[in-house]
Structure formats: C-alpha cells, structure tokens
C-alpha cells in the first residue's frame, strides 16, 4: 500500500470581487447613509419639510448676502467681518444702499459702488427687500432706527442754518461743499454728490467708518434735515462764475492763491519799476 505524501496548502490568493459586486457594496453603503441621514436629520428641517414656516425675507437676504462675514448671530467672524449687533437698520440701509456692503474683499476702506440688484432702493422691490433686511438685523440686535420720513420729507428748508451746521461739524472732512478729500492714514472722505437724503441721514445717525455719530442729542432731527437741505442745495451749482472754483475746499486754497498771485504781482511791479529807474 503506497504512502500518501504530505498535504500541500493552496497558497493562491482568494479571488477579488468583480465590478458588479463592488457596485452593489457601494449602492448598499449609499442606501445606509441616506437612511441614517433621514432618521437623524434635525427637527427644524423636518418641520420645514412638513410645511413649517419658511425663513422670512430678511433672514433669507441676510443668510445670502451677510452671514458669511458677519456670522449667524451677528457677532462677526474673525478676519472676515465685524459684528453688527447693535448697528441697527439705519446702518444696514446706509451700507447696503451705497453698495459698500456686501464687500468683495475685507481690506481697505469700503468704497461706494452700485448696490446689489435685489437690494437697490431705487426700485420698489429692492427697497422692500432692503427694509426687510434692516428689520431682521434690528430685531436681532437693536440699534439706530430709520427715520419715519423718507425722500423729500428729510430735506430741510433752512439751508443757511444747515450750512452753518455743516461747516461746523462736517466740512473738516467733506470740505465746504461736500466734495470730500484725503485724510490721515491713507483714508478718504467721500464726495457727497451721489448720496440721497436717507443715505445722508443714516450716515449721521450711524457714523460709518471714521465718521463720528451724530445722535439726536448732538444734532436734532430738524438740524439733520437742514444739513441735508444745504448739501443738496450746493450740489452741482456753479460756485465760481467767471473764475476757478479752487477745488471748493474753502479759505485755505483761496488764501494761498491770493498770496501767490499777490506776491507774483508785486515781484513784476518791482522789476518793472527797477527797469524804468
């Protein structure tokens, strides 16, 4: 009887699953993940799916245009945007209606640009959306509110008083006719030629960037309206008929020009007299 040799183990690797098996495993994994997501989804989303109240217009606009920089709680996000809790609907109106917000990048001084189309106060829909956004921020953090009047109702009639108040409180930065100019620290006071009554009023209420805040204790609503009336009255007028306007920045350039012209005149008179003697 012949002896059997020792058994030799089969060292071949097991067969890999085919493409069909891998596809079935992937499909099973997706089904399990989807089922767990449906079971564990937050209750708020369930309520929305079941016909719960949708987000308000102001909330939707805030989440679309503002939340990525200012945060869901209006407290800001480091290195992206400051907190805006407490700035109020007045600040929202000024910043958004002038196109300074939303900003393309968080650096330098925000410059005026055309506003987002759906928040453009020149259209009825855009104004309604802008007011809804401001109301949402106001309800979440409080702050200065928009005036009850708008448009021509914010333009005061006492332009003489408005001019005195403007020269005392605003001309240092915006010059005597609102043309603006350079400031320390590579900053620039804007020209007021495109600002409407509501933008001028809300700027005084909120003090954007380096501008001081002029609350109702600093300037009464009537005084603010007179300042607006003055700014609008000097906008586009010909302040120097028959001559140069010298930048419309007041007595500094006028005095220097008079000094330079006078000195040059005296020099030529002295030369002429010296030549005749």
From TrEMBL:
Stored InterPro entries: bc1_cytC-su, Cyt_c-like_dom, Cyt_c-like_dom_sf, Cytochrome_c_Oxidase_Subunit
The Cytochrome c domain, residue ranges: 53-141, 157-235
Enzyme class: translocase
Cited Pfam families: Cytochrom_C (PF00034), Cytochrome_CBB3 (PF13442)
Positions of transmembrane segments: 21-40, 256-275
UniProt name for this protein: Cytochrome bc1 complex cytochrome c subunit
Catalytic activity: a quinol + 2 Fe(III)-[cytochrome c](out) = a quinone + 2 Fe(II)-[cytochrome c](out) + 2 H(+)(out)
Enzyme Commission number(s): 7.1.1.8
Subunit structure, interactors included: The cytochrome bc1 complex is composed of a cytochrome b (QcrB), the Rieske iron-sulfur protein (QcrA) and a diheme cytochrome c (QcrC) subunit.
Keywords for this protein: Cell membrane, Electron transport, Heme, Iron, Membrane, Metal-binding, Repeat, Respiratory chain, Translocase, Transmembrane, Transmembrane helix, Transport
Places the protein is found: Cell membrane
Topological relation to the membrane, as annotated: Multi-pass membrane protein
Species assigned in the record: Actinomadura nitritigenes
Top-level taxon of origin: Bacteria
Major localisation: membrane
């Amino acid at each position: 009887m012949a002896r059997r040799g020792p058994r030799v183990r089969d060292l071949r690797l097991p067969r890999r699953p085919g493409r069909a098996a891998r596809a079935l495993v992937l499909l099973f994994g997706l089904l399990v993940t989807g089922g767990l997501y449906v079971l564990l989804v937050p209750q708020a989303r369930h309520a929305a799916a079941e016909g719960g109240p949708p987000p308000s217009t102001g909330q939707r606009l805030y989440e679309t245009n503002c939340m990525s920089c200012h945060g869901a709680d209006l407290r800001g996000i480091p290195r992206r945007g400051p907190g805006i809790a407490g700035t109020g609907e007045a600040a929202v109106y000024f910043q958004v209606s002038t196109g300074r917000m939303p900003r393309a990048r968080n650096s330098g001084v925000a410059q005026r640009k055309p506003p987002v189309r759906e928040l453009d106060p020149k259209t009825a829909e855009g104004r309604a959306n802008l007011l809804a956004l401001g109301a949402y921020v106001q309800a979440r953090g409080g702050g200065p509110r928009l005036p009850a009047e708008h448009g021509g109702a914010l333009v005061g009639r006492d332009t003489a008083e408005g001019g005195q108040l403007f020269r005392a409180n605003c001309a240092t930065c915006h010059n005597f006719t609102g043309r603006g100019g350079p400031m320390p620290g590579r900053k620039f006071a804007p020209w007021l030629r495109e600002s409407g009554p509501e933008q001028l009023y809300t700027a005084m209420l909120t003090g954007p960037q380096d501008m001081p805040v002029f609350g109702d204790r600093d300037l009464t609503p009537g005084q603010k309206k007179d300042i607006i009336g003055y700014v609008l009255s000097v906008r586009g007028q010909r302040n120097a008929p028959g001559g140069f306007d010298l930048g419309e920045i007041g007595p500094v350039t006028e005095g220097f020009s008079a000094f330079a012209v006078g000195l040059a005149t005296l020099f030529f008179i002295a030369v002429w007299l010296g030549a005749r003697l």
